[in-house]
Amino acid sequence: MTITDAMKKKHMTKAELCRKSGVAWATLSDICAGRTALSRVSVATAIRIADALGETVESLFRESKSHTGEDSFSFERFKGTTCHRLRRLGDIDFMIEVIESKEIRSLYQKRRLAQAFYLVAMIDYLCRRNNIPLCKDYDDIRGGRLAKPLYPSYAMIPYLRNKDTSAMRRCRREAIPEFLHFNIIEGDIDNVV
């Protein structure tokens, strides 16, 4: 269901949705018109819109695609897919596959920084876990980091709904250092559902 479909279902105008969600008119208009790629919508914005419409985030954005074909939760899906791939291949084969595929460099050149940083952090963590020297191919990328911390959605939802920061604080305390270096809060790559 798209935002426009949900507004029609609730007989709600954009102005009413703006007031109820706290999302700026310009942002909402850009999302509805497709000028803002939903892959760029923050989890906070998605939750506020979904709550205001009485919908789940998943149902609201399931069919809403950006011009790249990604929805707003592409990074969460990317993380899940990456962790499943690691589980399937094992540490060493995963590292070999990622490094040989040049996937990190491709993501970085496309400015998909969160994904590129996540993979470098994953490679660095696996190197430490397996007592293997770091791959020097990504030293230039290691100098970067995300401007704002990127928390898992399960930690953000209590904060956005109730201003409860306990899950975020716990996630940050338990974060794997290689991910934290890039401002990505990741605590467990092995127990993915």
What does this structure look like?
There is one protein chain. By secondary structure, the chain is mainly α. The protein has two domains: 3-61, lambda repressor-like DNA-binding domains (434 Repressor (Amino-terminal Domain), Orthogonal Bundle); 74-180, no CATH class. The chain has 13 helices and no strands.
Which terms summarize this structure?
13 helices, 0% strand, 193 residues, 434 Repressor (Amino-terminal Domain)
Secondary-structure topology with pairs:
Layout: H1 3-10, H2 14-21, H3 25-33, H4 43-53, H5 57-61, H6 74-89, H7 91-101, H8 103-109, H9 113-129, H10 139-142, H11 153-162, H12 166-173, H13 177-180
Helix pairs in contact: 2-4, 4-11, 6-7, 6-9, 8-9, 11-12
- The percent range for strand residues is under 5%
Helix content: 55-70%
Q: What structural class do you assign from the helix and strand content?
A: mainly alpha
- For this entry, what is the oligomeric state of its chains? single chain
Give the integer mean of the pLDDT values. Answer: 84
Domains counted in the coordinates: how many? 2
Q: Outline, from the CA principal axes?
A: elongated
Number of helices: 13
Count the beta strands: 0
Order of helices and strands: HHHHHHHHHHHHH
